[in-house]
UniProtKB/TrEMBL annotation:
<keyword id="KW-1003">Cell membrane</keyword>
<dbReference type="InterPro" id="IPR040690">
    <property type="entry name" value="FtsX_ECD"/>
</dbReference>
<feature type="transmembrane region" description="Helical">
    <location>
        <begin position="226"/>
        <end position="255"/>
    </location>
</feature>
<dbReference type="InterPro" id="IPR047929">
    <property type="entry name" value="FtsX_actino"/>
</dbReference>
<feature type="transmembrane region" description="Helical">
    <location>
        <begin position="179"/>
        <end position="205"/>
    </location>
</feature>
<keyword id="KW-1133">Transmembrane helix</keyword>
<dbReference type="InterPro" id="IPR003838">
    <property type="entry name" value="ABC3_permease_C"/>
</dbReference>
<comment type="function">
    <text>Part of the ABC transporter FtsEX involved in cellular division.</text>
</comment>
<comment type="similarity">
    <text>Belongs to the ABC-4 integral membrane protein family. FtsX subfamily.</text>
</comment>
<protein>
    <recommendedName>
        <fullName>Cell division protein FtsX</fullName>
    </recommendedName>
</protein>
<feature type="transmembrane region" description="Helical">
    <location>
        <begin position="275"/>
        <end position="295"/>
    </location>
</feature>
<keyword id="KW-0472">Membrane</keyword>
<keyword id="KW-0131">Cell cycle</keyword>
<dbReference type="Pfam" id="PF18075">
    <property type="entry name" value="FtsX_ECD"/>
</dbReference>
<dbReference type="Pfam" id="PF02687">
    <property type="entry name" value="FtsX"/>
</dbReference>
<feature type="transmembrane region" description="Helical">
    <location>
        <begin position="21"/>
        <end position="41"/>
    </location>
</feature>
<keyword id="KW-0812">Transmembrane</keyword>
Amino acid sequence: MRLNYILSDLGIGLKRNLSMTIAVVVTIWVSLSLFGSALLAREQVDLMKGNWYDKIQISVFLCTKDSGGRGCSGAEVTTEQKNRIKQVIESSPDTAPEGVFGETKKEAFDQFRKLYKDSPIVSTVTEDQMQESFRVKLKDPQRYQNLVSAVAGLPGVDTVQDLRQYLDPLFKALNGLQVGALVAAGLLLVAALMQISNTIRLAAYARRREIGIMRLVGASNFYIQLPFLLEAVLAALIGAVLACGTLWVGVYFVVMQRAQETFRVWQWVGASETFQATLIMVVVGLILAVVPTFLTTRKYLKV
């Protein structure tokens, strides 16, 4: 009997506030979709950082007779200078164990020809023009500046290059987009929260006499609040399901079908990250429904 009443009251509430309920569903749909996208964007940035930062090496290019670096004197790097440079690199606390690799002119030239095998520039470059170098892998790629400072001024060193100087602007831009998406999603979630509160407030105000009678006959607070709670939870769940479906469709067509095929060098978010994001979205949707419902209906529970 009580269940029939609750379900009947729920149906009446949905009919009375159909337009508001649809607006709540759409708002939650859009806000949770953007929120889930922001969560995946954060995961994607972390994956890209982990994928690239682990492979980052510092390249220490040695002098040739044509080099103009401050450690060069218009002559080829000497064996004594190379040994000194290698000693400084290996003694650095930031250098990974067995993380120093030398590259000769021949190896550099072979790599150059491999990279530009279809370019006419290959015929204009000789092996003698290549630079010897040391490739250094770090224990912590975040701490690259100490080693760069220690090596850059040594005699025989032409230039020191670190891939971070090219990756950091990219990751800063991605982090900026991520923050922007989170802020926009947060504003939409606040809008959804306010819309749910207004919907429940209007529904409770329209039935304030019924609520007063139920309180007088001894109905519990939870029993009175339950129809309103179910109404809000139903709207939130529908919006969350639509948002989760939108996120899965976006990941499948944008990431799995296009991005992974086009940019194979990157590691991309997949089913595991998307599933975690959808779980968070559903939980947030339920919180958006439950919290404002309890807070809004409390004032109408006093006789």
